[in-house]
Design a protein that fits this description.
494 residues, alpha/beta, Udp-n-acetylmuramoylalanyl-d-glutamate--2,6- Diaminopimelate Ligase, Chain: A, domain 1, Protein-Tyrosine Phosphatase, Chain A, eight-stranded mixed sheet, six-stranded mixed sheet, 17 helices
Length: 494
């Protein structure tokens, strides 16, 4: 991919160039570590790092031009500086153009919501592939281009990484991109230059209030995906709403796209006629606009009923055949870290789940309770440097819905793990008779404690980290995988 620097400059009417604009740009990056010969380096001002400090390093690695807000005292030799009022806003304009707007060429399905995005996008990907399409996926766990998998660092990558991923999908011949769209990405316009075709809202419950401050701001950020859905020229724009979530009625009124709804009520386009939840599977009979769907699912839990309904609505909007949808749903056995059963030869049930919000924890605890014959254990913590208002809420839910609660660390980041646990424990002062509460800040010790004390018919839910194989501490990030801890414990016991 190449563009003339002068072409990029045409997109920035307020820009002032110092140096020759008769140059070829063959890459764009805001990370000085990834600069290569011919790069345009974007100097971003972040909360903790100012990209202007890395301009010289970028020049030494071969950058031929840079977007800047502040002119340096000395201009690096051979580097053309493009001064703009806001480098982030400029990046949002030039990056999609540089990659020929791949988000307008692919058919884009965006899934947003507090919970359920990963499961929903993964099922949609499989259905589209079964339908004969080439598909890319961008999500919390990874980025996939057909069968090629790379690690994902954010639910929705920044503008440069996202456009590069979409461009790679176009080069690979993909027809679709299915992506999780975070509230941060919408509020910060990381999705600049993308024209979505179908948008799905799973639910909106408390999360990320450290960033959004209020639930109204959080909802309004999610709403942007639907408000701009009909921007552009592509045909067949559809919005999918979970009408059992109060935010859906508000956001549905803000979109001009065709709306499909799902939920318990029979006034929805898709609703359950009946469902039966078992420990390792469930039966689900759905009413849909194309007739009933009788499903025998390998995933379980009422929350997955909603994930399935949202998926079905999106796929019907994309005109995918009912038989294809049903065949994929019947064969889908889940996503790593989403109500994932861990089998290590133990006499009780162990479930690992990513639930890290009040709503997510409540959903998985209710599902775990429905399959528990003995006592229900929950091992969980709350992340540091994140919304601290949810900590006592999650503590209260754990105490109300589980029999034995073990509070531990999640990703404490720069916070003291014990202080995070103290905030959770404000809701654990009055422990009802017959219930037990423990605190063990070392996550391995906490998991081992539950594994050592659970009885044969018990269920242990290990919540918060799910698919993650790391733990972020104050001064380092270590390898840590909840599933591995369970397997290692029982491997040593054997």
């Amino acid at each position: 991919m190449e563009k003339q620097l002068a072409e990029l400059l045409n997109l920035l009417p307020q820009a002032q160039a110092t140096g020759s604009v008769d140059k070829i740009i063959n890459d764009i990056t805001a990370d000085s570590r990834t600069v290569k010969a011919g790069s345009l380096f974007i100097c971003l001002k972040g909360a903790t790092v100012d990209g202007h400090k890395f301009l010289l390093m970028a020049a030494e690695k071969g950058a031929v031009a840079a977007l800047v807000e502040d002119m340096p005292e000395k201009i690096p030799d051979g580097v053309t500086l493009i001064k703009v009022p806001d480098t982030r806003a400029a990046m949002e304009l030039v990056t999609p153009f540089f990659f020929d707007y791949p988000g307008k060429q692919l058919r884009m399905i965006g899934v947003t919501g507090t919970n359920g995005k990963t499961t929903t996008t993964n099922i949609i990907r499989l259905i589209l592939r079964k339908g004969g399409y080439k598909v890319g996926l961008i999500g919390t766990i990874n980025i996939m281009i057909e069968d090629e998998i790379s690690e994902s660092h954010n639910t929705t990558p920044d503008v440069v990484d996202l456009q590069k991923a979409l461009y790679a999908m176009r080069c690979a011949g993909c027809d679709y991109c299915v992506m999780e769209v975070s509230s941060h990405a919408l509020a910060l316009n990381r999705v600049a230059g993308i024209e979505y075709d179908c948008a799905v809202l799973t639910n909106i419950t408390q999360d990320h209030l450290d960033f959004h401050k209020t639930m109204e701001n959080y909802r309004d950020a999610k709403s942007l995906l639907f408000e701009h859905l009909t921007d552009g020229d592509k045909p067949n724009k559809n919005a999918v709403f979970n009408m059992d979530d109060p935010s859906s009625a508000i956001i549905k009124g803000r979109t001009k796209a065709n709306a499909l709804t799902y939920g318990e009520g029979h006034d929805n386009d898709i609703y359950p006629l009946n469902f039966t939840v078992e420990p390792k599977h469930m039966q689900l009979l759905l009413h849909t606009p194309v007739g009933e769907m009788d499903l025998e699912l390998k995933i379980t839990g009422e929350f997955n009923v909603y994930n399935v309904m949202g998926t079905v609505a999106a796929m019907l909007a994309e005109k995918i055949d009912k038989k294809i949808i049903c065949s994929v749903l019947d064969g889908f056995d889940g996503v790593p870290g989403r109500f994932q059963l861990v089998e290590a030869g133990q006499p009780y049930t162990v479930v690992v789940d990513y639930a890290h919000t009040p709503d997510g924890l409540e959903n998985v605890l209710k599902t775990a309770r429905s399959i528990t014959k003995g006592k229900l254990w929950v091992v969980f913590g709350c992340g540091g440097d994140r919304d601290n208002k949810k900590r006592p809420i999650m503590g209260g839910l754990a105490l109300a819905l589980a029999d034995n609660v073990v509070v531990t660390s999640d990703n404490p980041r720069t916070e003291d793990p014990e202080l995070i646990i103290d905030e959770i424990f404000t809701a654990l002062q009055q422990v009802p008779q017959g219930k037990q509460v423990m605190r063990l800040s070392d996550r391995r010790e906490a998991i081992d404690y539950a594994l050592a004390h659970a009885a044969d018919n018990d269920v242990i839910l290990i919540a918060g980290k799910g698919h993650e194989n790391y733990q972020i501490l104050k001064d380092r990030t270590i390898h840590f995988d909840d599933k591995e801890v369970v397997m290692e414990y029982w491997g040593e016991r054997k």
